[in-house]
């Protein structure tokens, strides 16, 4: 403790970006196996995450489109 002249350490952990690196397949499997999410809700989440792509655009230049199989789309309810 600080008043006893001992070292105090604070570790901050920001979980707001926790879903940014979660593999979609791993997320869906865990929802099914550990939380019992099945059928319609699981199918809805899978259809929401499957087939996502992204690209970078700067002025008139645009990168190739690549598939995204990790993270949650920005601005989505899941991404907040």
Which characteristics define this entry?
10% strand; 80 residues; alpha+beta; two-stranded antiparallel ribbon
Task: Describe, in plain words, how this protein is organized in 3D.
With 80 residues, this protein is α+β, with helices and mostly antiparallel strands. It is built from two helices and four strands, in the order ααββββ. The strands form two sheets. Strands 1-4 form a two-stranded antiparallel sheet. It has a two-stranded antiparallel sheet with strand order 2-3.
Bulk shape: flat
Can you count the helices?
Answer: 2
Largest sheet: 2 strands, antiparallel
Q: Radius of gyration from the CA trace? A: 19 Å
Sequence stretches where pLDDT stays below 50 over 5 or more residues: none
Helix and strand composition category? alpha+beta
**pLDDT averaged residue by residue:** 80
Strand order of the largest sheet: 1-4
Reading the helices and strands in chain order gives HHEEEE
| Count of beta strands | 4
Question: What is the strand content?
Answer: 5-15%
SSE topology sketch:
Elements: H1 24-35, H2 39-49, E1 53-54, E2 57-58, E3 61-62, E4 66-67
Antiparallel strand pairs: 1-4, 2-3
Helix pairs in contact: 1-2
Briefly, what is this?
By secondary structure, the protein is of the alpha+beta class. The chain contains 2 helices and 4 strands. A hairpin with a 2-residue loop joins strand 2 (57-58) and strand 3.
């Amino acid at each position: 403790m600080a008043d006893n002249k001992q070292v105090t350490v604070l570790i901050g952990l920001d979980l707001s970006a926790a879903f940014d690196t979660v593999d979609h397949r791993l997320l869906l499997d865990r929802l099914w196996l550990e939380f019992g999410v099945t059928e319609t809700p699981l199918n809805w989440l899978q259809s929401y995450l499957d087939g996502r792509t992204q690209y970078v655009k700067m002025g008139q230049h645009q990168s190739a489109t690549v598939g995204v199989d990790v993270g949650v789309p920005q601005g989505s309810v899941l991404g907040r």
